[in-house]
Amino acid sequence: MRAAVFLILTAMTLIPLGDSAGKVLSAHMGVSSYFVAGSRFAIGAIVAIVIFGTQGLRLLSNWRVWLRALPLVVGINAILIALSTAPFANVFAAFFIGPLLSYVFSAWLLREPVSRMQSLLIAAGFIGVLIVVRPGPDMNVGMGWAALAGISYGLYLTTARWLSTLAPARDLLTSQLVIGAMLTAPVAWLHLPAPELQIIPPILISALGSMIGNLLLLTAYSMAPATRLAPLIYFQLVSATVLGYAVFGDIPDGWSFAGLGLVLVAGLWSASLGNRRARG
């Protein structure tokens, strides 16, 4: 269990690190967010095929696998656009509407069991997201993109649960990266950056941080029950806040800190309730 915890905490650091490199590219180096997304999928697909082989490619003939990958493609593009214009930690707080919506979608579409207390905590987490996003005429447009990324991620998590028994997780990961590369390649090609050596390191960090983070996540989930590891997913908010300050000097204001705290507490509490129910 300790090894699984170490792996998932490392994963929850590497994934925001990859996104911070994406923000450096789009917000500070003038590289299109569409190219960053396309390069992330392309490099990730190549690495996945090298590590796992081509077994996942057989899934490309299944329409459900394409349906699973579509919200991920939308989500990755949306979060990279959001990061180019909005504070790092705030984007991640809005993005965490995804796990909250996945709870609702899974109960509604997949008929998964729910509890009243967990439903109340999900509602509290949603309020936390609203505090950070602060929808209205003065809302940062980047936070709208972050919310879209979160909604897409919630749909992705729901479809991932729906198809979890279709194939091994590594084959599903390979297929979604290949589909993502195929769908984003035309737009990424139209937004090719100038060939400068200085953009190569952040491109690689963006792609490999996300790829390795997801590999470690898959490995951790193969070593310990998902219900035991689920609360640790929220460590990503802590990593995003620290990285946002260390790399970009972003310091959330009082309201944003309050919203971040509410999302974190509600998420951890809800996950712990699911953990107890699974054990009992």
Provide an overview of this structure.
The chain has one domain (2-279). The longest helix is centred in the first third of the chain and has 27 residues, at 2-28. The model has no long low-confidence stretch (mean pLDDT 82). Helices cover 78% and strands 0% of the residues. Helix 1 packs antiparallel against helix 9 (200-223) and helix 5 (97-109) packs antiparallel against helix 6 (116-133). It is mainly α. It contains twelve helices and no strands. It has helices at residues 2-28, 33-52, 63-83, 88-95, 97-109, 116-133, 141-162, 169-190, 200-223, 226-229, 235-248, 254-279. The chain crosses the membrane at residues 30-53, 65-85, 91-110, 117-136, 142-160, 172-192, 198-217, 229-248, 254-274. It holds the Pfam family EamA.
Characteristics:
mainly alpha; 280 residues
How many beta-strand elements? 0
Order of helices and strands: HHHHHHHHHHHH
- Largest pleated sheet: none
Helicity level, as a percent range?
Answer: over 70%
What is the rounded distance between the termini? 19 Å
Radius of gyration equals 18 Å
- Globally, the shape reads globular
Keywords: Membrane, Transmembrane, Transmembrane helix
Protein name: EamA domain-containing protein
Organism: Litorivita pollutaquae
Question: TL;DR of this structure?
Answer:
By secondary structure, the chain is an all-alpha fold. The protein has helices at 2-28, 33-52, 63-83, 88-95, 97-109, 116-133, 141-162, 169-190, 200-223, 226-229, 235-248, 254-279. The protein has one domain.
